[in-house]
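Researcher: Next entry in the queue.
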Amino acid sequence: MNTPERRQLRATDVKRLNRTWRRATEGRLGLIVESVTQPFNIGSIFRTAAVFGVERLWLAGNATPPTHPNAQKTALGTDRLVPWDHAGTAADAVKQARAAGFKVVALELTGDALPLHEADFAGNVCLAVGGEDHGCSPALLAAADSVAYIPQVGRVGSLNVAVATAVALSEIRRREWAK
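Model: Structure for this entry, 179 residues:
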C-alpha cells in the first residue's frame, strides 16, 4: 500500500491550523499561580498559558515573575502574550478572577476533589495551581469554587506543577472542542 510521505507542517500551515482552533474556542480561561518559585516552572506555565489561550494570569504568594531571566529562557517570549500581574495573596487572586467573571477551580488532591475528567469546567474557568512542594495553600483551597485532581496510576504521588497545569488546561479546551 502506498502512503503519502508524512512531513511536518510549514509555519504558514501551522498558523492556519491554529486559526481554525481559535475559531472553535469560545470559553474564557484564566490562571492563578500561587507560590511557584522555580523559574523553569514559571516559564513553562506561561508558555502553556499562551498555547491554550489563557486571557489573564494572576501570580499570588511568592510566585516568581516571568521577568526572571531563567523564566524567560523557558517562556521564549510567550509571557508577552498573556497579561499578568501579581495579585498579592491567593484570596486576593481569587477575588480578582471572580470579578473578571471566572469561576475558580483549584488543581489539588483533597477529599472532595473530583477527577479531572469529571470536574465542571463549563463557562469561564480560572484554573488555580499551587507551589512545587506544598501545592495549593489552605487559603486558596478555601476560596476556590471547586477542586479537581489528575488521576494517576503510577507510583509517583504527583506531577510537576508545570506539567499538571498543561494537562488540566488541555483537558478544559479538549472538552470545549469535543462539543
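Model: DSSP finds six helices and seven strands in the chain.
Researcher: Noted, moving on.
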